[in-house]
């Protein structure tokens, strides 16, 4: 088991809800502004930007809900980690943008890296029983 105390179980659930909720909410936002996000993705050189926005929205919703519910948590958190790290470097390249955009891109880059760190912690714990979880996993 990931935690041995009732308080630890509640805190672990809270961590899952906070991180997974942010991921799922971010994914839902992809669907509310597909055109705008596709324009940004296209400007960054991503091929098929509309498809990429929709696919990344699905990935983020799946990952977030998987973490919150404890359903295939290794896959859910691992997919989120890969997406967050790739998108940090690909889309939030603060080192390659004009000075007036650098701070915003650095903030987004650091946010993605921090979230990736959280998802990697859940990957590491994915093979153990999670308290207050559905408990469907492959590992």
UniProtKB/TrEMBL annotation:
Keywords: Membrane, Transmembrane, Transmembrane helix. The keyword Transmembrane helix applies. It comes from the Archaea. InterPro entries: DoxX. GO terms for cellular component: membrane. The chain crosses the membrane at residues 6-31, 51-69, 75-97, 109-130. It is found in: Membrane. It is a multi-pass membrane protein. The keyword DNA repair does not apply. This is DoxX family protein.
């Amino acid at each position: 088991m990931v935690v041995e105390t009732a308080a630890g179980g509640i805190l672990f659930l809270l961590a899952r809800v906070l991180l997974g909720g942010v991921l799922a909410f971010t994914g839902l936002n992809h669907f509310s502004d597909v055109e705008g996000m596709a324009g940004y993705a296209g400007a960054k050189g991503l091929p098929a930007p509309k498809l990429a926005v929709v696919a990344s929205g699905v990935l983020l919703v799946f990952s977030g809900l998987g973490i919150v519910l404890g359903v295939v948590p290794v896959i859910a958190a691992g997919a989120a980690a890969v997406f967050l790290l790739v998108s940090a470097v690909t889309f939030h390249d603060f080192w390659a943008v004009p000075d007036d955009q650098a701070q915003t891109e650095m903030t987004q880059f650091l946010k993605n890296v921090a979230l990736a760190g959280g998802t990697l912690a859940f990957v590491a714990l994915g093979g153990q029983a999670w308290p207050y979880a559905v408990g469907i996993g492959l590992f």
